Task: structure prediction
Amino acid sequence: MTRAEVTELVVTQKLKKGLKWPDIAEVLGRSKEWTAAALLGQMTLTAEQAQAAGKLLDLPEDAVLQLQVTPYKGSLPTAVPTDPLIYRFYELVNVYGTTFKSLIHEEFGDGIMSAIDFKMDLARENDPAGDRVRIVMSGKFLPYKAY
Result:
């Protein structure tokens, strides 16, 4: 069983069981954001987490083992995403990437925001003009070193 097949099985079992990411996250003891990333193939689960996910989702042992393998990071099938929702993030970086870079460098100096030492929170914001998506990303600042 490949990791891609495990991801498909996870999504199918999640739907069959009527589970939401927060439901699964509670069982794994992680955030809904990390749990979704992990079970969609972008993070490594511990043996304990993989067993818990396997039990909750009725996954075969091969799938439970695959959840514990360090994944090949990067979930997009193309360089420029074609899915409309994912494309908006690409568009956001295209439009505001230099702004993010300038503001981060001005505030912190020459470096990057880590995607490894990283947290994310996604929530709904009620708004009379139409609900909004609120995403808060927090990554450790890593300065470039002189050598």
